[in-house]
Design a protein that fits this description.
The protein is mainly α. It is built from 16 helices and three strands. The structure holds carboxymethyl coenzyme *A. This is Citrate synthase.
Length: 379
Amino acid sequence: MKMNVEIKEGLEGIIACKTSISRVDIEDGKAVLEYRGYNIHDLARYSTYEETAYLLLFGELPTKKELKAFEEELKDLRDLPAQIIGLLTHLPPFTHPMVVLRTAISYLGSMDKEKHFMDYEHSIQKAKSLIAKIPTIIAYFHRIRTGQNLVHPNPDLGHAENFLYMLKGEVPDRIEARALDVDLILHADHELNASTFAARIAASTLADMYACVVAATGTLMGPLHGGAAQKVIEMLREIAVPWRAEEYVLKKLERKERIMGFGHRIYRNVMDPRTIELRNLAKKLAKMKDSKWFEIAEEVAKAVYKHKGLLPNVDFYSACVYACLGIPDDLFIPIFAMGRIAGWTAHIIEQYVNNRLIRPRALYIGEKGKKYIPLRERG
Ligand code: CMC
């Protein structure tokens, strides 16, 4: 059989589907990221996570009335069934919270009698439920593993604010809540990133939405994707003081090791627009909290650029933001998922609506036509 043998490693530059959810482009030497046609900088300045999630799911900005109704629906869906709380209690406390999240989402799927209904209305309902419940799963597991009482969702609080409240047991101040809100907006979607592609591949087989989100969650966890955020804070802790940053970077590069939070498949020589926003947030929070992370991060960024020419990506300064918010290191990736769930579900629905099985080919490079020798003759 003849095959087209041009292979793009890592599918670099391959257009695998059409989407009208988000657009990443380089225009006049600058990176542009838009959700449904709206620039990420405007969304970070003026929108809320709830409004952005609505935009991603429905394709248009909501009216005041629509947004209020959407926010109320999310609030009503926040709490978890007793079985899920039971699961969170039974999982070993050392389980990585991303594994917990993946498992809890799968369990939620097992409880949804309508999980196989893939029409638009049912899919939107499942998306809302997942957007609402993921923060509760993360916060409840953290409270359980640290032996603290559960803090139930507070309907007076917005999405990001309520998450910090459930996690820490105190209503956060306005600046902290807004910082997380903006962070979630910035993480809400990013075209065909690896986890979204995993979700779309699963959706293309007509797997149910929970199965698709489990595929995405597993994919996000890897250190070359969302897992980088946790690795960034581990690196900053190891460096500990700004003046050791350059030496640390040089040693890593000498050993040909990757520096987490740097490099991007699309933003090669241009700054990721999300990084610009997150750097501003990290700077503001570090000043407010008298935190050293931003200063160390800046020295790392200078050294990586000087010695390897790489720019920081979305995971780099978001690690500083989370650290300044007092979020435990292993919750960094789950918070990425908490933002990205809006994009994942929007992409799953887009795939269902105009589906064709995603099934590429591989070029076989192994041996061919070998003679099978029965075990008794192989010695
Ligand atoms: N540290 C050191 N060298 C790097 C890094 C890095 N973080 N990233 C890329 N390079 C080098 C790589 O070694 C190669 O160099 P050379 O040409 O000398 O061999 C060159 O840059 C091109 O790298 P690549 O592996 O071909 O790039 P890619 O598009 O396949 O990989 C990436 C993109 C994000 C996986 C990679 O940059 C990386 O491993 N970064 C660190 C992990 C990370 O921060 N991931 C988060 C990605 S952004 C948000 C997200 O998806 O969550």
